[in-house]
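Changelog-adjacent note: as of this version, every example in the card shows the full chain rather than a window. The one below runs 92 residues end to end.
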Amino acid sequence: MTNSAKVQFYVGASLSRVQKSNKTSKSAQIGGGQRGKVTNFSANSRRRLLRQVAKIKRDEPTLFITLTYPDKFPEDPVRWKRDIKTFAARVE
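Full-length structure tokens:
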């Protein structure tokens, strides 16, 4: 077994990470496969979002855009994805 660590720094941002790894086999796979239907904003989703935001350089102007719906919110995740793609195309 080999112990190693990977260090990541995001210059000008709020995040630095140390990721330990214990390599036991080259064929060991974690995750992957087909994802299930999106039903909520999970703790893991929140953690990934906060990690992405922490990578943003703090000394540069940043634009954070959200897509806002009316009071009657559509409950279909397929619609959300379509709306996001449409919005992104219009912004480009």
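Structural remarks: The mean pLDDT is 82.
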